[in-house]
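Late entry, written up from scratch paper. The run itself happened at the end of the previous shift, but nothing got recorded in the book at the time, so transcribing now.
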Amino acid sequence: MTTTQRAAARPHSRTRRAMLIAGYATDFGTLARGWNLILPGAFAKLIANGWQPELCLEHEGHPVGRWLRLFEDPRGLFVVGELDGSHRAQAAMAGVESGELPGLSLSRFIGSKARRDDGVNVCREVIHCREISIVTKPANPAALITEFCIGRA
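Output as recorded:
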């Protein structure tokens, strides 16, 4: 048997481990850090223009994957991402699986904001947001990973 034949005979020898996550990058009804509120429709133009934020870990380093789908629903900005096979991505997925990394977080963003009398910044339109990270503690407490799966692709 040749080397190629042996490799082909091994189960899953040519498959990779798929690591997918999904959840809310922001919740429209919840204050982030107690003073920022993003309104429904704030991401509409970005999404329509093909916005592709990076998928990072704790807002640091190189991306650990890519966002496959981003859309607004009545609750918030819902995202679906695929982690790459890097060691950081595998560590991130282990953290998601164990519950140590339950959240998602927007990077600092540029947006059209107005300050209410109570001091809350209300964002009607997000103009730029570089990345969305998997995090230990999201600024928006309702920005959580709701689903994940690990398997063979």
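The chain is about 15% helix and 45% strand.
(Scratch paper discarded after transcription.)
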